[in-house]
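Quick log. Single chain, no ligands specified.
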Amino acid sequence: MQKRNSTLILILLTLVVSTTQAKDPLPSWNEGEVKQNIVTFVKAVSTKSSPNFVPKEERIAVFDNDGTLWTEKPIPIQLSFALDRIKALSSEHPEWKTTQPFKAVLEGDIEKLKESGLKGLMKIAFATHANMGIAEFKKSVKEWVKKTKNSHTKTRKLYKGIAYQPMLELLAYMRENGFKTYIVSGGGIEFMRAWAKELYGIPPEQVIGTSTKTKFVLKEGKPMLMREPALNFNDDKEGKPVAINLHIGREPIAAFGNSDGDLQMLQWTTMAKKGLRFGLIIHHTDAEREWKYDRKALAGRLDKALDLAPKQHWNVVDMKKDWKRVFADIK
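-> predicted structure:
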């Protein structure tokens, strides 16, 4: 009887191990070269017996956000937040009705808004993101993300529901294998810190982004950090490797992006470095389920990095071909 029970236990254990081994860590990815390369890389650097083993503390992976972890079309999500804030605050600023670029926003004149260029967008950013405490700003962002639907997309999902399901799986898979995952984005650092933990499982101290100048003040006897209407650091292009060094202090062994804004981060991570490195670019090729854009896009332009990908052995995700599904099913 004891021998029979031992045999049954052995069979059950074998079944459990087999089931665990057969579990697909990336179920929203179609089988193909890119998926296989991801799995091969992760196993190679996290298996102690592997010649490419990397100690856990050095398993750093950096991810762009807009267009890499969630959608950025037809306009970046943070810009949508800023435009909504202009409308919400307009009663406190009657001068906006006659002043560009605020007038264009209030009248819904997108072409006029485009004419204002980067200078106009910076005015909007400072008007909606500055002259307030960090805590107050984060609260306004959290409330907006929680209740606002992205009316620009075909799915009309809440903003937190437009994260890419395949990338959520990838983040989880890498963390399960000892990676520390960071966001390194041109988006606002405090804007992303307001929701990154809930959506991506990435804590605020692992979010790196563009920042405004901030100062310490005592307001009514209470200490607080105030956001000022001035740029502190632009975390885009050449700024990304600089910010990685400043905030992390280690070189990543894996980098994920979708545009030329991520080019220098990919180069810094993968070129002329010892050991196995991994670079991946999301190529937006799916006009039906998401958006199709690359070389001529105003936001999220993918041109130089796309040309360099084969030479540098960066993986290029064909969204239409490589992803079974695009968006996460988050209510």
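DSSP finds 14 helices and eight strands in the chain.
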